[in-house]
Design goal:
Structural class: alpha+beta
CATH class: Alpha Beta
Order of helices and strands: EHHEEEHEHEEEEEHHE
Distance between the termini: 33 Å
Shape: globular
Number of domains: 1
Strand order of the largest sheet: 1-2-3-4-5-9-6-11-10
Number of strands: 11
Low-confidence stretches: none
Mean pLDDT: 92
CATH superfamily: Gcn5-related N-acetyltransferase (GNAT)
Number of helices: 6
Largest sheet: 9 strands, mixed
Length: about 220
Amino acid sequence: MLTYHRITSIRDPYFGSLHKLLQTIFPPEEVLAYELWKEPLEDPSIHVYAAIYEGEVVGSTEYRYYPELRVAMTDFTIIGKAQLGIGRFLLRNRERDLQRLAEQSGTTSIGMFAEIYDPFRAADHSFGGISPMNPYVRREVLSHIGYKRLNLSYVHPSWDHAGEAVTELDLGFLPADDGQQTIDASLVASFLEGYYSALPNKPEQWHSMMDHIRASETIELLPL
Protein backbone atom coordinates (compact mmCIF):
# COMPACT_ATOMS: atom_id res chain seq x y z
CA MET A 1 0.00 0.00 0.00
CA LEU A 2 1.28 3.46 -0.92
CA THR A 3 1.62 6.15 1.74
CA TYR A 4 1.59 9.92 1.04
CA HIS A 5 4.29 11.35 3.31
CA ARG A 6 5.20 15.04 3.59
CA ILE A 7 8.91 15.85 3.94
CA THR A 8 9.63 19.08 5.84
CA SER A 9 13.32 18.66 6.73
CA ILE A 10 16.54 17.36 5.24
CA ARG A 11 16.75 15.31 8.45
CA ASP A 12 13.64 13.38 7.45
CA PRO A 13 14.70 9.70 7.13
CA TYR A 14 13.24 9.57 3.63
CA PHE A 15 14.85 12.73 2.24
CA GLY A 16 18.18 11.12 1.33
CA SER A 17 16.41 8.51 -0.78
CA LEU A 18 14.25 11.18 -2.39
CA HIS A 19 17.27 13.28 -3.34
CA LYS A 20 18.98 10.27 -4.91
CA LEU A 21 15.81 9.56 -6.89
CA LEU A 22 15.79 13.16 -8.15
CA GLN A 23 19.40 12.81 -9.28
CA THR A 24 18.55 9.58 -11.08
CA ILE A 25 15.65 11.08 -13.02
CA PHE A 26 16.61 14.70 -13.76
CA PRO A 27 19.70 16.28 -15.39
CA PRO A 28 22.20 17.78 -12.89
CA GLU A 29 21.26 21.39 -13.66
CA GLU A 30 17.66 20.65 -12.66
CA VAL A 31 18.45 19.30 -9.18
CA LEU A 32 19.04 21.55 -6.18
CA ALA A 33 22.05 20.52 -4.08
CA TYR A 34 21.28 18.44 -0.98
CA GLU A 35 22.14 21.11 1.60
CA LEU A 36 20.25 23.81 -0.33
CA TRP A 37 17.00 21.92 0.27
CA LYS A 38 16.99 22.94 3.96
CA GLU A 39 15.11 26.23 3.57
CA PRO A 40 12.64 25.11 0.86
CA LEU A 41 11.59 22.08 2.91
CA GLU A 42 11.03 24.24 5.98
CA ASP A 43 8.94 26.74 3.97
CA PRO A 44 5.29 25.96 4.84
CA SER A 45 4.13 27.12 1.39
CA ILE A 46 6.23 24.48 -0.40
CA HIS A 47 4.75 20.99 -0.29
CA VAL A 48 7.08 18.06 -0.90
CA TYR A 49 5.46 14.64 -0.61
CA ALA A 50 6.97 11.21 -1.10
CA ALA A 51 5.13 8.07 -2.10
CA ILE A 52 6.34 5.37 0.27
CA TYR A 53 5.98 1.67 -0.56
CA GLU A 54 7.25 -0.97 1.86
CA GLY A 55 9.57 1.57 3.48
CA GLU A 56 11.02 2.80 0.18
CA VAL A 57 10.61 6.13 -1.63
CA VAL A 58 9.09 5.14 -4.98
CA GLY A 59 7.84 8.53 -6.14
CA SER A 60 7.40 12.14 -5.17
CA THR A 61 5.72 15.42 -6.06
CA GLU A 62 6.41 19.01 -5.08
CA TYR A 63 3.90 21.80 -5.48
CA ARG A 64 2.72 25.12 -4.08
CA TYR A 65 -0.36 27.32 -4.22
CA TYR A 66 -0.33 31.09 -4.71
CA PRO A 67 -3.63 32.44 -3.30
CA GLU A 68 -2.88 36.00 -4.47
CA LEU A 69 -2.61 34.73 -8.06
CA ARG A 70 -5.11 31.87 -7.67
CA VAL A 71 -2.73 29.46 -9.38
CA ALA A 72 -0.72 26.42 -8.35
CA MET A 73 2.65 25.19 -9.56
CA THR A 74 3.80 21.60 -9.84
CA ASP A 75 7.56 21.73 -9.39
CA PHE A 76 8.04 18.06 -10.21
CA THR A 77 6.36 14.66 -10.22
CA ILE A 78 8.62 11.62 -10.29
CA ILE A 79 7.95 7.90 -10.45
CA GLY A 80 10.61 5.47 -9.30
CA LYS A 81 8.92 2.16 -10.08
CA ALA A 82 6.49 0.98 -12.71
CA GLN A 83 3.21 -0.92 -12.18
CA LEU A 84 2.44 0.42 -8.72
CA GLY A 85 -0.03 3.12 -9.78
CA ILE A 86 2.28 5.81 -8.41
CA GLY A 87 1.38 8.46 -10.99
CA ARG A 88 -2.35 8.27 -10.28
CA PHE A 89 -1.70 8.11 -6.54
CA LEU A 90 0.36 11.31 -6.58
CA LEU A 91 -2.09 13.09 -8.90
CA ARG A 92 -5.16 12.42 -6.77
CA ASN A 93 -3.48 13.25 -3.46
CA ARG A 94 -2.05 16.47 -4.90
CA GLU A 95 -5.45 17.48 -6.28
CA ARG A 96 -7.10 16.98 -2.89
CA ASP A 97 -4.38 18.89 -1.07
CA LEU A 98 -4.46 21.82 -3.52
CA GLN A 99 -8.22 21.98 -3.19
CA ARG A 100 -7.78 22.16 0.58
CA LEU A 101 -5.19 24.94 0.27
CA ALA A 102 -7.45 26.96 -2.02
CA GLU A 103 -10.40 26.59 0.37
CA GLN A 104 -8.25 27.59 3.35
CA SER A 105 -7.24 30.79 1.54
CA GLY A 106 -10.81 31.59 0.52
CA THR A 107 -9.97 31.43 -3.17
CA THR A 108 -10.80 29.28 -6.19
CA SER A 109 -7.89 28.10 -8.31
CA ILE A 110 -7.89 29.06 -12.00
CA GLY A 111 -5.19 26.56 -12.95
CA MET A 112 -1.72 25.14 -12.42
CA PHE A 113 1.65 25.78 -14.06
CA ALA A 114 4.30 23.15 -14.83
CA GLU A 115 7.56 23.08 -16.76
CA ILE A 116 7.38 20.35 -19.37
CA TYR A 117 10.28 18.81 -21.28
CA ASP A 118 10.03 18.94 -25.05
CA PRO A 119 11.66 15.72 -26.31
CA PHE A 120 11.21 16.90 -29.88
CA ARG A 121 13.84 19.58 -29.18
CA ALA A 122 15.97 17.85 -26.55
CA ALA A 123 19.13 16.18 -27.77
CA ASP A 124 19.46 13.84 -24.79
CA HIS A 125 16.58 11.59 -23.75
CA SER A 126 18.67 9.32 -21.52
CA PHE A 127 17.53 10.75 -18.19
CA GLY A 128 14.45 9.41 -16.56
CA GLY A 129 15.61 6.03 -15.29
CA ILE A 130 12.43 4.08 -16.04
CA SER A 131 9.92 4.13 -18.87
CA PRO A 132 7.16 6.12 -17.06
CA MET A 133 9.63 9.03 -16.74
CA ASN A 134 10.58 9.04 -20.42
CA PRO A 135 10.03 12.63 -21.70
CA TYR A 136 7.73 11.45 -24.51
CA VAL A 137 5.59 9.48 -22.06
CA ARG A 138 5.48 12.30 -19.51
CA ARG A 139 4.49 14.86 -22.12
CA GLU A 140 1.65 12.74 -23.42
CA VAL A 141 0.40 12.01 -19.90
CA LEU A 142 0.32 15.74 -19.13
CA SER A 143 -1.54 16.34 -22.38
CA HIS A 144 -4.13 13.74 -21.33
CA ILE A 145 -4.52 15.46 -17.96
CA GLY A 146 -5.28 18.72 -19.78
CA TYR A 147 -2.07 20.73 -19.78
CA LYS A 148 -1.44 23.21 -22.57
CA ARG A 149 1.77 25.00 -23.48
CA LEU A 150 2.26 28.74 -23.49
CA ASN A 151 3.15 30.10 -26.90
CA LEU A 152 6.56 31.55 -26.06
CA SER A 153 10.23 30.59 -26.28
CA TYR A 154 10.66 29.46 -22.71
CA VAL A 155 13.89 29.49 -20.72
CA HIS A 156 14.61 29.34 -17.03
CA PRO A 157 17.70 29.81 -14.81
CA SER A 158 19.51 26.63 -13.82
CA TRP A 159 18.82 25.37 -10.30
CA ASP A 160 22.53 24.77 -9.69
CA HIS A 161 22.88 28.56 -9.16
CA ALA A 162 25.32 28.80 -12.10
CA GLY A 163 23.02 31.21 -13.92
CA GLU A 164 22.89 29.13 -17.09
CA ALA A 165 19.89 29.21 -19.41
CA VAL A 166 17.91 25.95 -19.38
CA THR A 167 16.00 25.46 -22.60
CA GLU A 168 14.24 22.52 -24.27
CA LEU A 169 11.24 22.98 -21.99
CA ASP A 170 7.80 24.50 -22.37
CA LEU A 171 5.93 26.39 -19.71
CA GLY A 172 2.67 24.50 -19.38
CA PHE A 173 -0.65 25.50 -17.82
CA LEU A 174 -3.57 23.34 -16.75
CA PRO A 175 -6.60 25.67 -16.86
CA ALA A 176 -9.58 25.01 -14.62
CA ASP A 177 -11.65 25.97 -17.67
CA ASP A 178 -10.70 23.48 -20.37
CA GLY A 179 -11.93 25.91 -23.04
CA GLN A 180 -9.50 28.64 -22.02
CA GLN A 181 -7.35 29.61 -25.02
CA THR A 182 -5.20 32.45 -23.62
CA ILE A 183 -3.67 33.44 -20.32
CA ASP A 184 -3.09 36.92 -18.92
CA ALA A 185 0.55 37.86 -19.58
CA SER A 186 0.75 39.90 -16.36
CA LEU A 187 -0.22 36.77 -14.41
CA VAL A 188 2.58 34.81 -16.08
CA ALA A 189 5.10 37.57 -15.36
CA SER A 190 4.08 37.83 -11.70
CA PHE A 191 4.26 34.08 -11.29
CA LEU A 192 7.72 33.69 -12.87
CA GLU A 193 9.17 36.68 -11.01
CA GLY A 194 8.08 35.17 -7.70
CA TYR A 195 8.94 31.59 -8.55
CA TYR A 196 12.53 32.38 -9.57
CA SER A 197 13.17 35.03 -6.93
CA ALA A 198 15.26 32.44 -5.05
CA LEU A 199 17.80 32.32 -7.90
CA PRO A 200 19.84 35.55 -8.01
CA ASN A 201 21.85 34.56 -11.10
CA LYS A 202 19.65 34.73 -14.17
CA PRO A 203 20.80 34.49 -17.81
CA GLU A 204 20.19 37.29 -20.29
CA GLN A 205 17.81 35.01 -22.20
CA TRP A 206 15.55 34.92 -19.15
CA HIS A 207 15.46 38.70 -18.87
CA SER A 208 14.66 38.98 -22.59
CA MET A 209 11.81 36.50 -22.23
CA MET A 210 10.42 38.41 -19.26
CA ASP A 211 10.55 41.69 -21.19
CA HIS A 212 8.57 40.02 -23.98
CA ILE A 213 5.97 38.70 -21.52
CA ARG A 214 5.59 42.08 -19.78
CA ALA A 215 5.05 43.78 -23.14
CA SER A 216 2.21 41.38 -24.01
CA GLU A 217 -1.43 41.45 -22.94
CA THR A 218 -2.17 37.75 -23.32
CA ILE A 219 -0.29 34.59 -24.24
CA GLU A 220 -1.88 31.89 -26.36
CA LEU A 221 -2.38 28.42 -24.90
CA LEU A 222 -1.54 25.70 -27.43
CA PRO A 223 -1.86 21.89 -27.39
CA LEU A 224 1.10 19.90 -26.10
